[in-house]
């Protein structure tokens, strides 16, 4: 009787703690949305920002955020996928793999400002790429790669070993077993980790202040030549992202309606991250059903 009562008390305490955490997070999200949603409209989402006068938008910063995210994921996802497959399916348990996993754990806990300073020294100065989208993308690759690699490895390890044995028993090679059986089974977890990593990148500011820059030059959206300075696709131009813009608006104070712009941009940022999470769950389930039924 005492054991059952203790179990109920402990369970109740855990549920209470979880409820408090959820309440705090929900309150924070609702507060940001309540402050920001009234300032969001089509003009705010598409017009460029303005300094020293009201009425500016976040159009260029929003485009820069998605474009830099795309470049970063193009670089980091294939590398992390290959590293995760190697560590899960091919690497032997020895001192070298222990060192690699320890390095991944250490790198995944680095503050983003340290990654930003590293990117500034290596890519902006030494590689002479300057403040640019490619410098920011390379820095964020180092920032995101450890988490993506660990997510891929854990997703693959979660696939039961009997599925690997079944593939080998059917005459498939080890690589065919990995690509045709293990990866499709682990794909929902991998995809969820990739989308969560994308949300983390989308909301990153500290690393990009030192690499992608703090200015948003005017873009010509009729010019899609990636070598042109005014082209949106030019990866060597400066690109102030949405998160950096929020920090800049609040730190410089050169906008008469800075509080409204900051609130609206914060709400857009929260909505985008939530959409990333919902999209990850939806696509993960759909792809898993399609690939397992094929």
From TrEMBL:
<feature type="transmembrane region" description="Helical">
    <location>
        <begin position="190"/>
        <end position="212"/>
    </location>
</feature>
<comment type="similarity">
    <text>Belongs to the binding-protein-dependent transport system permease family. CysTW subfamily.</text>
</comment>
<feature type="transmembrane region" description="Helical">
    <location>
        <begin position="12"/>
        <end position="34"/>
    </location>
</feature>
<dbReference type="Pfam" id="PF00528">
    <property type="entry name" value="BPD_transp_1"/>
</dbReference>
<keyword id="KW-0472">Membrane</keyword>
<dbReference type="InterPro" id="IPR000515">
    <property type="entry name" value="MetI-like"/>
</dbReference>
<keyword id="KW-1133">Transmembrane helix</keyword>
<feature type="transmembrane region" description="Helical">
    <location>
        <begin position="261"/>
        <end position="283"/>
    </location>
</feature>
<keyword id="KW-0813">Transport</keyword>
<keyword id="KW-1003">Cell membrane</keyword>
<feature type="transmembrane region" description="Helical">
    <location>
        <begin position="129"/>
        <end position="148"/>
    </location>
</feature>
<feature type="transmembrane region" description="Helical">
    <location>
        <begin position="66"/>
        <end position="87"/>
    </location>
</feature>
<dbReference type="InterPro" id="IPR035906">
    <property type="entry name" value="MetI-like_sf"/>
</dbReference>
<dbReference type="GO" id="GO:0035435">
    <property type="term" value="P:phosphate ion transmembrane transport"/>
</dbReference>
<protein>
    <recommendedName>
        <fullName>Phosphate transport system permease protein PstA</fullName>
    </recommendedName>
</protein>
<dbReference type="GO" id="GO:0005886">
    <property type="term" value="C:plasma membrane"/>
</dbReference>
<keyword id="KW-0812">Transmembrane</keyword>
<feature type="transmembrane region" description="Helical">
    <location>
        <begin position="99"/>
        <end position="123"/>
    </location>
</feature>
<feature type="domain" description="ABC transmembrane type-1">
    <location>
        <begin position="62"/>
        <end position="280"/>
    </location>
</feature>
<dbReference type="InterPro" id="IPR005672">
    <property type="entry name" value="Phosphate_PstA"/>
</dbReference>
<dbReference type="GO" id="GO:0005315">
    <property type="term" value="F:phosphate transmembrane transporter activity"/>
</dbReference>
């Amino acid at each position: 009787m005492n054991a059952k009562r203790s179990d109920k008390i402990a369970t109740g305490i855990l549920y209470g703690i979880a409820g408090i955490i959820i309440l705090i997070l929900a309150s924070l999200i609702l507060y940001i949305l309540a402050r920001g949603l009234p300032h969001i409209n089509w003009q705010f989402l598409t017009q460029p920002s303005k300094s020293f006068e009201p009425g500016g938008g976040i159009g260029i910063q929003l485009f820069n955020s998605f474009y830099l995210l795309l470049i970063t994921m193009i670089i980091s996802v294939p590398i992390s996928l290959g590293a995760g497959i190697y560590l899960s399916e091919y690497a032997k348990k020895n001192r070298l793999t222990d060192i690699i996993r320890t390095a991944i754990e250490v790198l995944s806990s680095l503050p983003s400002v340290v990654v930003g300073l590293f990117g500034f020294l290596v890519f902006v100065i030494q590689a002479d790429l300057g403040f640019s989208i490619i410098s920011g993308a390379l820095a964020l690759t180092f920032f995101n790669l450890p988490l993506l690699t660990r997510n891929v490895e854990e997703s693959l390890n979660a696939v039961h070993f009997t599925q690997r044995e079944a593939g080998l028993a059917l005459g498939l090679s080890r690589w065919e077993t990995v690509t045709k059986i293990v990866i499709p089974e682990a794909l929902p977890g991998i995809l969820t980790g990739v989308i969560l990593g994308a949300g983390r990148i989308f909301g990153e500011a500290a690393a990009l202040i030192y690499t992608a820059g703090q200015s948003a030059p005017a873009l010509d959206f009729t010019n899609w030549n990636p070598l042109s300075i005014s082209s949106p696709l030019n990866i060597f131009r400066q690109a102030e992202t949405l998160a950096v813009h929020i920090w800049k608006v609040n730190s410089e104070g050169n906008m008469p309606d800075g509080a409204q712009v900051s609130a609206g941009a914060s709400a857009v940022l929260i909505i985008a991250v939530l959409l990333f999470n919902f999209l990850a769950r939806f696509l993960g389930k759909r792809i898993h059903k399609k690939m397992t039924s094929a």
